[in-house]
RNA sequence: GGUGGGUUGGCGGAGAGGUUACGCACCGGAUUGCAAAUCCGUGAAGACCGGUUCGAUUCCGGUACCCACCUCCA
């Protein structure tokens, strides 16, 4: 069996993954707070874990892996948006508006992550479904002397947990020295954090031993991971920005509530995303969502490929150049599939997946090394395709399929979203393009190359890709397709 | 100020104390009416300073620069 090695943030070393129970490998990823569309950076931990889960499924069997990713649907930003809608004149209750907001955001999130080829987790718990468990956990922490009540709040007492700060390599004293936060007067220690806070009447709240209130930010992950994976599980992950305070606080809560259990064995943190070499931020104007890219006609698998080209523990840059490079690569794969993979090929089997790709991934999810191996396989598949040898082709596409590259269609989004239905109808029966191709073929036959080239250039200007193959011309829509120019082209050449 | 990470050819990016990483782009050639696609091939590197070594991009020390977190942003 292939040994998976992962860099554990907790120990800062690459370690063997030794499952607590190989019959049930358990992992938890901190999911989104569902107040708005997922931005591009949100996609990174999802894709990192997607690759990890695919690898675990391959090695341990999909029935022996449990993947949990939560939705945090209690949050001040959600409340703010609901209140904004209420103020704007919505007749719905604030509670209904909150539900409306979180439901639509979860729907968007699913659609966007699906487009990236990310598999859905086994469980996607929502914080609001686990309020009871959070209240119980808070009560338990108070009973064990790790938390205290003050002015309607429940606070975690960081001084009661000697390991506080270990994950992120900080001492409580250092953090206090550099803290820039206002310290609430009722805290025993400035670093104490909120487990429960009171809610006023116009905010969502639940009855608790400490009055009507709502949970603090970190407790939901401790409660949900314990409920679905138990107090001791294998892997816990998220973006590097969650290392402190979120994960540090989770560890404090969970370890104090379940002493001796150990919580997560391995902590995995992905580095941050940059855009054209700069931090993505609203103020720099380079902030965008996954949906923004999809709507521009960039295929989800293009985004996926760009992400997999960078190791998860390095800062990743999203750039126009990398986007183009990934599109070219996917187009090549699509060409090879069309030319070399029989339509009636047998189903891909686990045995078809390349061992070297698995080994690369097992080595701390070295996706870039896996892709490098894939380029070798691409070459073999191309050569084999010419010789009518199916096996290297099968292995190549089975491995691509395993890595989540199944559509290999960089124009799919364009066809499904951006093109208006009327134009889409025309294109679906292909009348305009087909008749123009015929006109060009006739011109070439008559050796009227000026006319033939004019049509070809017209296609390019209208955003239609045309390739002449041995089997005749093939066409597809490119990014920037312009139906008007295509119609004009058809008029000019009498097609 | 505290903590952690990084600096490899135009771009992305890896392993290894000594042998071409690889991919993209570029350039040259083949093919094509011209393109595209495809095929063949060349060139190009490891922030800076010192140390260890027969030999370092790879180990050690220092310097510079960059990034992130310490602010309920993955």
Describe the structure.
There is one protein chain. The protein is of the alpha/beta class. It has three domains: 5-270, 3-Layer(aba) Sandwich (Rossmann fold), CATH 3.40.50; 274-410, no CATH class; 420-492, no CATH class. The chain has helices spanning 43-60, 76-87, 94-115, 131-143, 172-178, 219-229, 243-257, 290-295, 300-308, 320-340, 355-362, 367-386, 391-402, 412-418, 421-429, 431-445, 449-462, 483-492, and strands spanning 5-8, 13-16, 25-29, 65-69, 147-150, 153-156, 193-198, 213-215, 232-239, 263-270, 273-275, 278-279, 316-318, 464-469, 472-477. The strands form five sheets. A four-stranded parallel beta sheet has the order 4-3-9-10, sandwiched between helices. The protein is globular, with a radius of gyration of 27 Å. The protein starts with a strand and ends with a helix. Mean pLDDT is 86; it is low at 417-422. The chain binds one RNA strand of 74 nucleotides through helix 1, helix 5, strand 9, helix 7 and helix 10.
Pick out its properties.
single chain, 495 residues, alpha/beta, Rossmann fold, four-stranded parallel sheet, four-stranded antiparallel sheet, 15 strands, globular, RNA-binding
Topology:
Elements: E1 5-8, E2 13-16, E3 25-29, H1 43-60, E4 65-69, H2 76-87, H3 94-115, H4 131-143, E5 147-150, E6 153-156, H5 172-178, E7 193-198, E8 213-215, H6 219-229, E9 232-239, H7 243-257, E10 263-270, E11 273-275, E12 278-279, H8 290-295, H9 300-308, E13 316-318, H10 320-340, H11 355-362, H12 367-386, H13 391-402, H14 412-418, H15 421-429, H16 431-445, H17 449-462, E14 464-469, E15 472-477, H18 483-492
Parallel strand pairs: 3-4, 3-9, 9-10, 11-13
Antiparallel strand pairs: 1-2, 5-6, 6-7, 7-8, 11-12, 14-15
Helix pairs in contact: 2-3, 4-6, 6-7, 9-10, 10-12, 11-12, 12-13, 16-17, 16-18, 17-18
The chain binds one RNA strand of 74 nucleotides through helix 1, helix 5, strand 9, helix 7 and helix 10.
């Amino acid at each position: 069996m292939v040994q998976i090695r992962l860099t554990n943030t907790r120990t800062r070393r690459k370690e063997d993954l030794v499952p607590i129970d190989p019959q049930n490998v358990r992992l938890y990823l901190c999911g989104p707070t569902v107040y708005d569309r997922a931005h591009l950076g949100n996609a990174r931990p999802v894709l990192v874990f997607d690759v990890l889960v695919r690898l675990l499924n391959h090695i341990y069997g999909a029935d022996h892996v449990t993947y949990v990713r939560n939705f945090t649907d209690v949050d001040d930003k959600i409340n703010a948006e609901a209140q904004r809608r209420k103020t704007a004149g919505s007749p719905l209750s604030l509670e209904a508006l909150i539900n409306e907001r979180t439901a639509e955001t979860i729907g968007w999130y699913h659609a966007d992550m699906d487009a990236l080829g990310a598999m859905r987790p086994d469980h996607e718990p929502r914080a609001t479904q686990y309020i009871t468990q959070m209240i119980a956990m808070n009560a338990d922490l108070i009973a064990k002397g790790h938390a205290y009540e003050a002015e309607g709040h429940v606070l975690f007492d960081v001084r009661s947990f000697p390991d506080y700060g270990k994950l992120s390599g900080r001492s409580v004293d250092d953090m206090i020295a550099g803290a820039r936060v206002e310290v609430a007067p009722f805290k025993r220690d400035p670093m104490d954090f909120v487990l429960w806070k009171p809610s006023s009447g116009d905010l969502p709240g639940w009855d608790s031993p400490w009055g009507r209130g709502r949970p603090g930010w970190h407790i939901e992950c401790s409660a949900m991971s314990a409920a679905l994976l138990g107090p001791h599980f294998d892997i816990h992950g998220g973006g590097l920005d969650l290392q402190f305070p979120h994960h540090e606080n989770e560890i404090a809560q969970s370890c104090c509530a379940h002493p001796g259990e150990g919580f997560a064995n391995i902590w995995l943190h992905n580095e941050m995303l940059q855009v054209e070499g700069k931090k993505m931020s609203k103020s720099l104007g380079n902030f965008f969502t996954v949906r923004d890219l999809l709507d521009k006609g960039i295929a989800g698998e293009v985004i996926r490929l760009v992400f997999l080209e960078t190791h998860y523990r390095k800062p990743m840059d999203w750039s126009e150049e990398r986007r183009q490079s990934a599109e070219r690569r996917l187009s090549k794969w699509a060409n090879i599939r069309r030319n070399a993979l029989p339509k009636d090929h047998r189903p891909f089997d686990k045995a078809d997946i390349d061992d070297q790709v698995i080994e690369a991934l097992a080595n701390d999810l070295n996706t870039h090394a896996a892709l490098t191996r894939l380029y070798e396989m691409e070459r073999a598949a191309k050569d084999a395709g010419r010789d009518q040898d199916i096996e290297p082709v099968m292995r190549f596409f089975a491995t691509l399929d395993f890595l989540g590259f199944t559509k290999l269609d960089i124009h799919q989004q364009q066809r499904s979203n951006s093109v208006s239905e009327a134009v889409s109808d025309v294109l679906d029966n292909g009348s305009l393009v087909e008749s123009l191709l015929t006109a060009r073929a006739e011109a070439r036959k008559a050796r009227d190359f000026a006319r033939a080239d004019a049509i070809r250039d017209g296609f390019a200007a209208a955003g239609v890709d045309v390739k002449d193959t041995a089997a005749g011309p093939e066409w597809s829509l490119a990014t920037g397709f312009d139906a008007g120019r295509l119609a004009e082209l058809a008029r000019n050449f009498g097609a």
